[in-house]
Amino acid sequence: MKVEFIGDFGHETGGLVILFNETGLIKHVEAYLD
User: Fold this and answer.
1) Predicted pLDDT of residue 23
2) What is the pTM of this model?
């Protein structure tokens, strides 16, 4: 999954990490810039 970050810092690309637990619920979300 690609994420676009738009703000006062300009336009950047990055990513999004989503981790799920054993029952399928989201347990961690992390967004980062490249």
Assistant:
1) 98
2) 0.58
Give residue-wise pLDDT tens across range 1-34: 666 777 787 777 888 899 999 999 999 999 888 8
Task: Please state, in angstroms and rounded to a whole number, the distance separating the CA atoms of residues 25 and 4.
Answer: 24
Give the DSSP letter string of 1-34: -EEEEEETTEEEEEEEEEEE-TTS-EEEEEEEE-
Q: Locate 9 and state its tokens.
A: 């810092």
Supply 8's token pair.
């006062």
In the chain the first and final C-alpha atoms are separated, in Å, by: 13
